[in-house]
Amino acid sequence: HNGENALTFCFEDPLLPYRMDNNSMAIYEPYVFDSRMFGPEGYDRSQRIFRRRQMTIRVRHPFTHNAEVDSVDVKPYELLTTVNGDLMKGIEPTMTADGRLLVLHGNSANNGNGGHLMYSYNEKACAVSGWSTPHVLSELHLDTEPALQKYPLSWNPLTAATGELYDSEYTVIGAYPWLDHEGRNVLYTAASHPKPVGGRREAVSLIGADTGYMAVHLDGSINESRDTVPKLFYSSPMWQFERERHPSLLMGNETNTRHYLPVTKTHDVLPLFGSNTEDYNEVDIGILKNPHYMLYLPMNELVTRAGEYDLTRTPDLSGHGHVGRLRGTALVTPTNNETHASLLQGIQGRGKALAFDGAGAVTIRLKQGVSFVDQYMEGLTVQFLLRPATSACGKKTERVVMRKYELLEILSVGDDSVEMRLKVGQTWITAYTISLTLDAWTHVAWSFDGVAGSLKSYRNGVHMGNTVSLAPGTVHITPGKVWIGAPSTSMSRWTCPKKNGAFIGFIDEVAIYAHTRSGRSICNELIGADCAMEAIQDSPTAGQYHLSHQEPGCKSSAELGSLPCIRAGHRVCAQHVADAYLAANQNNPDAVNQVVSDRPPVSMAAVPVSTTADHATLACTPTNHESLPIDFADLAAHDSSCTGERVADTIACLSAAHHFCSSIGWTTGTIFEVTSRPWITCFRADLVASVDHNSELYGCDQGMWTTTNCRISISKWCRTKGYDGGIAQGLQIDNQVRVHCFYAAAVLTLPF
Predict the structure, then answer these.
(1) Which of 28, 351, 452, 702 has the most CB within a 10 Å radius?
(2) Which whole number is the average pLDDT over 180-203?
(3) How crowded is residue 636: how many other Cβ atoms within 10 Å of its Cβ?
(4) DSSP readout, 424-457?
């Protein structure tokens, strides 16, 4: 109808998308932006223009299961123009929630031809004119418009899965884009569908802040198979309907008791609705980026910078460029069928997997000079999914699952078990054997803690109850090749190899972390695992209480006010207090629910109390609290300077968190984590006071409110009043700082 190709909604005030009339109807008045694919002359690319029209939508019984559209009024089209007065040309528009950043499918000539992801900016929300001339998305980070710095997508250059940069010559090739609400990431189709369908309708991918600015071909249900059903538009309500969201942030002041999206609760997950595919998918962006990744192979197809499948390689999502190369007969499965479990609640793989028939392998070269390589590490975790095939060889065979010279060796023994050897110092340590089930998926993991001197084994997210004790030490991550599926290039289909045989079956989701992972972290990533209750009882080891082992960026007292140390402090407080909380409330259902509920478990923050060269003393905020995910847009409504993660550790965001928490019945609030959005903890202070920063605090000069010295000074002031710690909650006139003091759930002295 009228040549529409795609559309996007724009609200001038996205936080107030509707109003209520006297008849209790919800009235929405969005602008609808669309692209005309077919003009009066038919399929003429030069006639691909963008248009705007305003709609008035009236909804009866809003926010109930009886809601229905009462009427729709549509105003005439207006044509979008650039700052030069030229018509905006292209197809498939998508826009941030603030109505200012537009991403489209077009080209630099602005002539209606496609093939490239482009962007345009307007200082006025939902405007019809004044749009910047479209530029390639790969040069967004070079744009000198200061307002674009609001969008995390603009902060860094974009790269392909191969590590190659996108630029003006090698642009992001794609179609059917969806730009998320905050301008963090773009979802798009990256590869061509085979003829006769044609078009770039394959390999749904994500690129942006939550992928480390690398193009990630998503491994999972959204890419069910290669070259079958073409994939067009996907879009998402993001966090608007999740159960964890506070009811005060929901439309119509409704409760969130009937909110179920996303279903996955362990990470930030994008719920995505397909158009032509009529499907629903969840993309777990929590696993796409981790500061401790040394290697992460999802074992799906690599998409090149030119936008083509490369079935001889599998991508590495660690950000270190350790791309896997397929050798011999190893191949990426063409569909997701092999990773499905026979039972709905059974352990499953994720998306595609690597298939091995006894004559194939994957090799990865760990590069000198890359993070963690050629270093001595006090922690290491290796984990993956394994599905051995029946070989009818009995217990006498050994097949190589993974081998890294002078570091580790993992063998499948007799088809029904797997063994791991790790070199600690100059000694090879053998972990406890993990049993496997033939022709079924098993998740295996080994977590080494060189501080505590321990090596734990996990099966399907559950600690096996036995730990190898050893002398404290380190592992040396030497440069060179990692072999997966075979011992070397001398692969052979020996029927029943006694030693050094090649693996037969499937391997998926291979990850190596340069730290000691907890049972909860291992469990939370699994699909179909029943491990949550056991995982929360898995006691942390000594190395997990080192702040730098929680966040590599928290290495000294100078960083105590930074986001990495805020995260690290939260994690050690949450783990320590969760253990104590459960121990003291073993038969208390509310206590257990606090730890395993939909909302983040025991998510208190950590406040610095004192520091030495090697240690920090932290006060954990009270156990009686409420932890919530929230958008920066919601925080900015309470303090306009709290606009994004670059300022998440500032006094503006402390003030915003305070005001939000006050609005829902608490006194005090602070950000304890930033993933794809901030997470805050709300609690009740035991003392609220106005403190003169000139006479009673030190290190709290203008602009220095959240430095290590100022944070410690505030806690020291509170300690002189008999409390354990304190936190700033905003500024007042006449050099006054709003200080909230509290009795801590725990006071911990921890090594960096």
Answers:
(1) 351
(2) 90
(3) 17
(4) ETTEEEEPPPEE--TTS-EEEEEEEETTTTEEEE
